[in-house]
Every structure is written in structure tokens, then in C-alpha cells.
Specification:
- Helix content is 32%, strand content 18%.
- The protein is built from 18 helices and 24 strands.
- The longest helix is centred in the middle third of the chain and has 29 residues.
- The radius of gyration is 25 Å and the shape is globular.
- The mean pLDDT is 97.
- It binds beta-D-galactopyranose.
Length: 639
């Protein structure tokens, strides 16, 4: 498949007289896609029930006439003031009980029925008008669900919907749920927390001390389901009026809802990639690492999300819907990328299978919140630095062979429910499921391995030499059996199978692996400044479990405590959170069929069906296969 480029454009920000020239320049650059519309509700419907489509008709026509394909966004991330005035209860409420006000975006609670109706109405009107428009070649629902921490809302609407959701989880006679079953499942006998009725159940915020983790986890599951339902309502409408594929633009390290479940209703997964912003505000990396990669981004963060969203997209279809083009406005510090990085990020996305990469945004806005955010053009319409890099990618695409996505030799399971469980009960400051999985991912990549990320609904692991399933706090027996039957090496733990479906410690003790007596008999989390040395090299950081039973010990601490133990025919249980050295040792020792090569600092490799791509994230030259590759350099070799 030929990979394509696109851009995010806001016709409503610019005089209409400028649109045709903009469109011509986009086409001249070679762009295929232009995403528009996702924040323009007020322009589409200035007052309730009065639609003004004329400007959008003309914008789509102008872009389409220039040969561009339009991705049309539904505008539900930015309800206008009149919608909020009509439904004051739709505003989200934060965990401190404060209403989050009007004046930016994403100011809605997913559970508010009145707001959902407004969304259905505007999406229906759009779908009817543009569903068969030949220039509208794809749709985007809303914009970045959960961005700005907007999935968990503690509003009255959320509370009422949560009670109904719980009734359905614990069905009883008639319409009411079985409150005794909920009390038993959650262990509400503790601290006399038993409820008499579902209407006594509040939201898990503003309690005197910690809330029951079962309650907190159920609330996160509920909140995730609300996002799925909200998105599905839009998808159902769009599908009734249009055959164009539907996407949503997810984010980096936002895990507050189950992307696999949202993705199941969509055709394309896309995500918004801001490598420098993410390094500063969500990579969790230490100061030295942030300094070393301040102008390049973390060498694994983008790739991780590319692999994740390839799994979320139906049949592996995924895009980068927004690609950072220069300094952004929203991270603690906002440096400019090294020359060449925009090109590198683009090629890296293609190497991981992206169908399209769209830059955010066409022209830097001279007004409002994102004045400090670069675009392909400066506010005066002159070319900004990234423009030339996009032009270079276009030229390279023209002469390059197509990228053929191939199955990787390593699979890592990723589960949003496990992430929620760790968020509820990290057991140590700074410990997160995402962090644990990402550490394993990085260890694979430092060994030059390509990785597939797969959901916990996957049952066929036979293609993989190595399957990694760390931190899955709740595991079904069915999943354990499927992993145990895998042909390749399986590594699970720590905390795998540590909780039942309602957040209680099961017995027999975890991991309760099929046909193994291995048991986690005690767990401890550790201060960051108290790592434990592992015999033979590496350390255990953050988390260590005491393991009893099982088969051979394949890794232990210097003091002789087992860290990794055989717990089935092809499964190793790792009872600690290792550092990169420990993880890399386990990968190499346990899966010797893998072809590993230790990467030079900052270099990463990605294999496609026919080629290898090498990406130099380091700020200095590196030697790759006898060739000097400069910073931000990309090298392609055939397999
Ligand atoms: C994204 C968002 C865009 C824009 C961009 C700025 O998160 O979808 O609308 O705000 O960030 O970097």
C-alpha cells in the first residue's frame, strides 16, 4: 500500500479568500488528506436548530476540487456556550467535586443524557449533509477522548448512570440489582460498608480515606464503558448515512478507557503523536534521559503507540492523525525538534504500518490557546521548518518501495483493565501498569526486536517466539490456558492473576497457573533508591514478590531470593519489576530463537516484510552496519 501524508486544517480560522490558495499549496506539497471540522460546532449551528452549512460546503468543495480527500470530524469535543447553558449538568466534575467550567474544550460528562442527545442531533445533521459527499473520504468521531483527564467525571449524571451500570453487573429480580451479591463480591463487610440498596452507592471520590479498590475499579470500568457507548452512538449515525471509514484520534499514554472496545466499532485507529511534548509531560523518564532526547523524543514512546494502535485498528488499519511539526505549546518545556526529526517520526510511523501521517497543523494560529504551537506554515503563511521535511518525505515516498507490515517475533499483551487496576492500587509511588509494559517493550527494542502488541482477547500465540504478559492483575482461566498452550516462550508476572474479577485476592494464591503449584506468598514494593541486585547482572526495582513452589529458578537476587521461576511447560513467572538489564537477560536467555542485536544508544530497528528500518534518535552520529548515520538519520536495508 502507498503511504500518504495529510494535514489538519481549520478553514473557519482563515478568511474564505485564502482557502483556495491553501488547498493548492497542500496539493502541491503532495498531501492526500485534510482533516477539518472537529471543533467547529458553533460555526455549524450558531443557535439551536439553525444550521449554517454554506461555509463548510464551500470549504469541502474547495479542498476537494484541489484533489484533497477530506477527513470530517464530528464537533462534539467543543459544545458551544448555548449547549452548556441549556444543559448546565453536562459539565464534568473533577475528583475534588469542582465543576470544570466552560472556556476551553472537552467540557462534557460522557454520562449526561441531554448532552448525548445534542451530540446525536448534530452528528445526524452532519451525516445527512455530508455522508454521500464525494470529497468526504473518512470521518473522525469527536477529538481525543480522555485528553485533559476527561473520562472520570464525578457528576450527578455519572453517579446515576454508575448505579444503573452496577445493577446490570449484579442482576437481581426485576429491574433492581442484587445488592447482596455486590456486597459479597466487593468485600463490603470490611468497615461496615455493606449497602442496602444501589441508590446508596456514591462515586469513589471525597471519601475520608481510601475507598474500597473494588469500588474504584468498578467506577473506572463503568467510565470506560460510557466512552464506548458515546462513541458508538456517533458511529451508528454515521454508518446509516455514509460508507466512508470512521476513525477516532487517540492519544499517547492515555489509558482511561478501553481503546480496543472503542476500536471494535471503528474502521481505523489513529493517534496524535507529539514526541517532544510527551517526553516532557508523560514519558516518566528521568532528567538525564529527558535532556538527552529533548529534541528527538523518547526512542520507544512513538513506536510503542504505533504498535498499540495497529492492534486497536480493525485489521491493523491505523494512522497518525496529528504529527508534531515543531515546538508545541502545552508541555512544561517546548523545544524545537532537531532538523530531520519530523521526517524521522514520519518514516517511523510508516515503518510500523501507518497508512497515513497528518501534520498538526497547516498554519500556526495567531490567536487563542495554541499561538505557541508550530504548524507547517508560520502565521504569515511562509513555510516553517517542517514544511521542507514533509516535502522531503513526499519525494522519498515517490521512489520508495511500499512498506509491507509483517508479523513480529515478539508479542506483548496490553490490557486497559489491568492499567485501571494498577491505577487503583499501585502499591508503591510511581508504579504503573503502563510503565511496566513499556519497560519490557523498551528491553525488546534495545535488543533490536520488532514487537506486536495484542489484546487479552487474543487466543492464538503460536506465531510468536516470545509472548510477554506482565502485570495482568486479573486473568481469566481461558487466557492462562491459551498462553500455556503457546508454542513459544511465555513470560508472565509480576502481579499477573493477582486479583479476581472484583478486586479480591484469589485462592489458591496467584498466579494459580494451570498445573503449577507456584504461589506468590508475599508482595513488597520498594523505594526507588533501594533496588535489589540480581545475580549475574541487573536489578529489581519497584516491586518484588516472594515466590513459593514452581519449577526451576531461572533468575534470583544476589541474596538468593527467586525472581523468575518456571511455572508451566513453556511459561516463566517473573515476580519482580526488573531494570532493562534484567529484562534483556531474560529475553535472551529464555527465547534463544530470537535474533537479537544490542542497539547502539538511541538507535532502534524495525523490520517489515522486506526491509529493516534503522532510526537514530541520538543527538550524535552512530555507526550502523559500517555506515555513519547522523542524528535524526533513517537508514533502510533490505532483509
Ligand atoms: C492535540 C489536539 C489538537 C491540538 C494539539 C496541540 O492533543 O487534538 O487539537 O490541541 O493537541 O498539540
Amino acid at each position: 500500500m502507498k503511504r500518504t501524508l495529510g494535514v489538519c486544517y481549520y478553514p473557519e480560522h482563515w478568511p474564505e479568500a485564502q482557502w483556495a490558495e491553501d488547498a493548492a499549496r497542500m496539493a502541491d506539497l503532495g498531501l492526500t488528506w485534510v482533516r477539518i471540522g472537529e471543533f467547529a460546532w458553533k460555526r455549524m449551528e450558531p443557535v439551536e436548530g439553525t444550521y449554517e452549512w454554506g461555509w463548510l460546503d464551500r470549504a469541502i468543495e474547495t479542498l476537494g476540487a484541489a484533489g484533497l480527500k477530506v477527513v470530517l470530524g464530528t464537533p462534539t469535543a467543543t459544545p458551544p456556550a448555548w449547549v452548556v447553558a441549556k444543559h448546565p449538568g453536562m459539565l464534568p466534575v473533577d475528583a475534588e467535586g469542582r465543576v470544570r467550567g466552560y472556556g476551553s474544550r472537552r467540557h462534557y460528562c460522557f454520562s449526561h443524557a441531554g448532552y448525548l442527545e445534542e451530540c446525536r442531533r448534530i452528528v445526524t445533521a452532519m451525516a445527512k449533509r455530508y455522508g454521500r459527499n464525494g470529497h468526504v473520504a473518512a470521518w473522525q468521531t469527536d477529538n481525543e477522548y480522555s485528553c485533559h483527564d476527561t473520562v472520570l467525571s464525578y457528576s450527578d449524571a455519572a453517579r446515576d448512570a454508575f448505579r444503573d451500570w452496577l445493577r446490570a453487573q449484579f442482576p437481581g429480580a426485576g429491574n433492581d440489582g442484587d445488592i447482596a451479591a455486590l456486597n459479597a463480591a466487593w468485600g463490603n463487610v470490611f468497615w461496615s460498608m455493606d449497602y442496602d440498596d444501589f441508590d446508596q452507592i456514591g462515586l469513589p471520590n471525597l471519601t475520608v480515606t481510601e475507598v474500597n479498590p473494588a469500588h474504584a475499579h468498578a467506577f473506572r470500568r463503568f467510565a470506560s464503558d460510557q466512552v464506548v457507548a458515546f462513541n458508538r452512538a456517533q458511529v451508528d449515525i454515521l454508518r446509516a448515512h455514509s460508507d466512508a471509514p470512521i476513525a477516532h484520534n487517540y492519544m499517547g499514554r492515555i489509558t482511561d478507557f478501553d481503546h480496543f472496545k472503542v476500536g471494535a466499532d471503528l474502521d481505523i485507529a489513529s493517534w496524535d503523536s507529539y514526541p517532544l511534548g510527551f517526553l516532557e509531560d508523560r514519558s516518566g523518564a528521568g532528567d538525564a534521559h529527558q535532556r538527552a532526547y529533548a529534541r528527538q523524543g523518547d526512542p520507544d514512546f512513538q513506536a510503542f503507540h504505533h504498535d498499540l494502535y495497529r492492534a486497536v485498528g480493525r485489521e491493523g488499519r491505523w494512522w497518525v492523525m496529528e504529527q508534531q511539526p515543531g515546538p508545541v505549546n502545552w508541555a512544561p518545556y517546548n523545544p524545537a525538534p532537531l532538523p530531520g526529526m519530523v521526517r524521522l517520526w514520519t518514516w517511523e510511523a510508516f515503518a510500523h504500518g501507518a497508512e497515513a501521517v497528518c501534520y498538526f497543523r497547516w498554519r500556526q494560529a495567531p490567536f487563542a490557546q495554541e499561538q505557541m504551537h508550530a504548524g507547517l506554515l508560520r502565521p504569515d503563511s511562509a513555510e516553517a521548518e517542517a514544511f521542507g521535511e514533509a516535502r522531503q518525505v513526499m519525494a522519498e515516498l515517490a521512489g520508495a518501495p511500499d512498506v509491507e507490515v509483517a508479523q513480529a517475533p515478539v508479542a506483548i499483551l496490553f490490557d486497559y483493565d489491568a492499567d485501571a487496576a494498577w491505577a487503583v492500587q499501585p502499591h508503591g509511588a510511581g508504579l504503573s501498569y503502563f510503565g511496566l509494559v513499556f519497560d519490557w517493550y523498551r528491553a525488546c527494542r534495545k535488543l533490536g526486536l520488532s514487537v506486536d502488541i495484542v489484546p487479552v482477547t487474543c487466543r492464538d500465540f503460536d506465531w510468536y517466539d516470545l509472548v510477554l504478559a506482565p502485570g495482568l492483575m486479573h486473568m481469566t482461566d481461558d487466557l492462562k490456558t491459551a498462553l500455556e498452550a503457546a508454542d513459544g516462550q511465555v513470560i508472565v508476572g509480576p502481579r499477573s492473576g493477582a486479583r479476581d474479577a472484583h478486586f479480591c485476592i484469589p485462592t489458591p494464591l496467584p498466579p494459580a497457573w494451570p498445573a503449577s503449584d507456584l504461589a506468590v506468598s508475599r508482595v513488597q514494593s520498594m523505594r526507588p533508591d533501594m533496588p535489589l541486585d540480581v545475580a549475574g547482572g541487573g536489578q529489581v526495582i519497584g516491586y518484588l514478590e516472594q515466590l513459593e513452589g514452581g519449577g526451576d529458578v531461572v533468575m534470583s537476587t544476589e541474596d538468593g531470593a527467586p525472581v523468575a521461576v518456571r511455572c508451566g511447560a513453556g511459561t516463566i513467572y517473573v515476580g519482580g519489576w526488573g531494570d532493562d538489564t534484567a529484562h534483556m537477560r531474560l529475553i535472551r536467555d529464555l527465547a534463544p530463537t530470537l535474533t537479537t542485536v544490542e542497539m547502539p544508544e538511541g538507535v532502534r530497528r524495525r523490520a517489515t516484510g522486506t526491509e529493516q528500518f534503522w532510526f537514530n534518535y541520538a543527538a550524535h552520529d552512530v555507526e550502523i552496519q559500517g555506515e555513519i548515520v547522523p542524528p535524526a538519520g533513517v537508514k533502510r536495508t533490505s532483509l
